[in-house]
Task: structure prediction
Amino acid sequence: MRTSRSLTAAAAVGLSLVSVAACGSPAPPPKESGGAAAKAASHESAADFGGMDKLVAAAKKEGALNVIALPPDWANYGKLIKAFEKKYGIEVKSSQPDANSQDEINAAKQLKGQERAPDVFDLGSNVAVANTGLFASYKVKAWKDVPDDVKQADGKWISDYTGYMSIGYDARKVPAPKSLKDLLKPAYKGKVALNGDPTQASAGYHGVVMAALENGGSADDIAPGVKFFKKLKDSGNLLPVDPTPATIASGQTPVVIDWDYLNVAQTEELKGKADWKAVIPKNAVVGAYYRQAVSKDAPHPAAARLWQEFLYSPEGHNIWLRGFARPVLADVMRKNGTIDEKAYAKLPSASGKPALLTEKQLKKGQDYLQAHWQKDVG
Result:
């Protein structure tokens, strides 16, 4: 429902939504092109600086951090930025908040060597994997606690937060669904919306995967998901409407298949206008991580590395969580007692191991949708 980051996620599944980064007039080159900056750029851990205190000191000396494609209302990035600035006294300069993942890469290439080039990235999966040559190797203190299958072994990128596909619904207008199959019932006639064309948007794509899992398919076989949505359309229950907070508030889209962090956000934003709830169908849990990376050409290399340490600290992770995103270290934090349990309790419960699609599975599914979605569902 938030177009900016849904486009970013679409880039994450390799869809053809590449836009061109905005370019202004050239800025002066960084003040420090060697010396301390070059040394910081070679460090692969806080230990290489001599510990966190020395990393903090080096970052404070740089005095600034450039971020890109971070909408303030997405995963609580606005509060993350303010908390980082307050904690360390480092100015965060946020550019192109509505950009997508490819825009981030374009900006890094076009602004290389300039003071305003991005220091860090928050990228969709495919874009991160395709551009590791632009990233510096850096392992945060919490590196060992992040599962091996959601990070690159050399430290070029690390997963940060995810969401699970869910069914959002207005309890004032429809009965509570427990599964996607429930949405085929007459009570949902003309009431169900999918967030985005699956051939173009990540939420729509992963909604089809969720339907596949519930209907005998898998991450390798999404055909049953397409068949489900064909049934939903043929029954008259699927709306040809791209849902937004406005369509939910007006009652036009009382059921929305979307990421849980977006659906849960609606429960807060639409109080008094809708009794909005979200449910994740059992054994049909689908997730997709974003990935953090440090630019190898970061004009503020120490601040970039400190930002990563902040994000993967309990403080940073809990701020993501309060924005309804599921941080990668949530399970670890629950075990060691550092998670914000009140914020965690607001997330819909999920049953079963989440399906996290590989690059190969994403490409295979994309190819299938390009061949079948328009013909079968339209």
User: Anything to note?
Assistant: The longest helix spans residues 359-376. The CA atoms of residues 317 and 327 lie 6 Å apart. The longest strand covers residues 165-170.
